[in-house]
């Protein structure tokens, strides 16, 4: 078997004027990503996603990878990420390069799964897993003036039993937002907060102390992702677990997070970290240091499918029969038709669970009409 065709397919969607949403750093109305479609000589098709804007990702895939990928045996997938660090030399650590690698890697795993009749999570070494617990990624900062409790109420009505909310504007408003979310979710729900790196260490400490009474499961990106010394400073000052990784890519950056337990939870994005091959390696490093893994997802439905398969493969180590912290999978509740319309059978979090596809590979079928609607090339 060999790959005979590589296509990069940029996608985009824009919110109406005045309806921007975001985090403590600012609002946005435009969303974009890039799919990769691989086809082999026997007609098998695999899909992956580069979590990067179309023009950059497409150019990178076409100029740096397409010639080498055509003719490649997809079963050689694990050589992709490793080769990217050395050829082209000096460029392998670039986020767009790693996003391109991620898309091709995931598409290869999709092909491998289809060729052997197994879902990707079983190929990655996981046991059979049929359901995961989704958490609503919600309560964004918005341009429009809306009651802060509205999105949390919507999430509860949809059946979510866990949520992650945006904070990070200032410690006082952080406490108010967390208090509101906790009251609506109830005492037993997992509640996570995301500061999106908007604080200096002393500000993050002040905010953490203001919200710790609300039983927060983790604080995500309390300081900027590049502020390694800031993370180390926070380790001895914050009692709430710290999570990071959505803005990191490749094994070497994650090794720095994992070594000496800089964070309690790493969050690789399957469209950026190097794909399923690197994610499996990252999960192995994390397990060695007893660090939890919870994938980040703000992608299209293809990136979500990869993350679901990856999450289903992750070991519960050190837990055995009793698992006090079950796997949580992020489910973005902002408007994103590239997630909600792109598949023949969309992921459905209703009732507080997400089904893990058991069909071969990623277990998804692309809706070709939706793909054409959101193409940006």
UniProtKB/TrEMBL annotation:
<dbReference type="InterPro" id="IPR029017">
    <property type="entry name" value="Enolase-like_N"/>
</dbReference>
<keyword id="KW-0614">Plasmid</keyword>
<dbReference type="InterPro" id="IPR046945">
    <property type="entry name" value="RHMD-like"/>
</dbReference>
<dbReference type="InterPro" id="IPR013342">
    <property type="entry name" value="Mandelate_racemase_C"/>
</dbReference>
<dbReference type="GO" id="GO:0000287">
    <property type="term" value="F:magnesium ion binding"/>
</dbReference>
<dbReference type="InterPro" id="IPR036849">
    <property type="entry name" value="Enolase-like_C_sf"/>
</dbReference>
<dbReference type="InterPro" id="IPR018110">
    <property type="entry name" value="Mandel_Rmase/mucon_lact_enz_CS"/>
</dbReference>
<keyword id="KW-0479">Metal-binding</keyword>
<dbReference type="GO" id="GO:0009063">
    <property type="term" value="P:amino acid catabolic process"/>
</dbReference>
<dbReference type="GO" id="GO:0016836">
    <property type="term" value="F:hydro-lyase activity"/>
</dbReference>
<dbReference type="InterPro" id="IPR029065">
    <property type="entry name" value="Enolase_C-like"/>
</dbReference>
<feature type="domain" description="Mandelate racemase/muconate lactonizing enzyme C-terminal">
    <location>
        <begin position="148"/>
        <end position="241"/>
    </location>
</feature>
<dbReference type="GO" id="GO:0016052">
    <property type="term" value="P:carbohydrate catabolic process"/>
</dbReference>
<dbReference type="Pfam" id="PF02746">
    <property type="entry name" value="MR_MLE_N"/>
</dbReference>
<dbReference type="Pfam" id="PF13378">
    <property type="entry name" value="MR_MLE_C"/>
</dbReference>
<keyword id="KW-0460">Magnesium</keyword>
<protein>
    <submittedName>
        <fullName>Mandelate racemase/muconate lactonizing protein</fullName>
    </submittedName>
</protein>
<dbReference type="InterPro" id="IPR013341">
    <property type="entry name" value="Mandelate_racemase_N_dom"/>
</dbReference>
